[in-house]
Amino acid sequence: MLLGRDLTTLTHISHLPAHRLTIAYTDAGVVSIEFSDMPLASESMPSTSDSPQFLAVLRQKMNAYLHGQSQVDFTTIPLALSDASQFQLRVWQAVKRIPYGQVCSYQDVARKIGNKHAARAVGRALATNPVLIVIPCHRVLTSGGNLGGYRAGTELKKKLLTLEAPNHNHSYSGGNSYV
């Protein structure tokens, strides 16, 4: 149990080399999505036959995303983020609207939520984002176009941005701003 909730985890082998994806969920929704570089025990995701329906949908969408399909929409996936502050929820909602293949700055997100002076607070909120990829905080960069931080590590942030880069045949090098 985590904070009084019945929590279940499901490990998924991601299509990013040396990264394992772990999804924690309750019956109400996804609680967290984490990447790990720990050794992988198997080559396939366990069955979700006894799991909530949204988990099968998330599995399909995550596989599509990790195979570079740009039209993956995670907005129908229920999230169980009851421990988040109102500020965090506002930041995460703004970030969920950043389109695939585009990036913006922490300052841009601060403006989107109506507080142009909150860029550092936006960064702190994104550092606590428990649902990686579904809330695509990897799409948020510094005002200068640098990677900034990422809870799963900047190398993974770079891999995700490269995956989303136009034509998928080059590494992320900045650009494609969403404002």
List the helices and strands and how they pair.
Blueprint: E1 8-13, E2 20-26, E3 29-36, H1 53-66, H2 86-96, E4 104-105, H3 106-112, H4 119-127, E5 140-141, H5 154-164
Parallel strand pairs: 4-5
Antiparallel strand pairs: 1-2, 2-3
**Quick one: how many beta strands?**
5
How many angstroms does the end-to-end distance come to?
40 Å
Query: Major beta sheet, specifics?
Result: 3 strands, antiparallel
Give the class-level CATH name of the largest domain: Mainly Alpha
Structural class computed from helices and strand pairing: alpha+beta
Write down the CATH topology of the largest domain: Arc Repressor Mutant, subunit A
Range of helix content:
25-40%
Gyration radius over CA: 16 Å
CATH architecture of the largest domain: Orthogonal Bundle
Order of helices and strands: EEEHHEHHEH
β content, as a range?
A: 5-15%
At the fourth level of CATH, the homologous superfamily of the largest domain is: Winged helix-like DNA-binding domain superfamily/Winged helix DNA-binding domain
Let me know the average pLDDT: 81
Described by the principal axes of the CA atoms, the overall outline is globular
Low-confidence stretches: 39-48, 168-172, 175-179
| Domain tally | 2
> What's the total helix number?
5
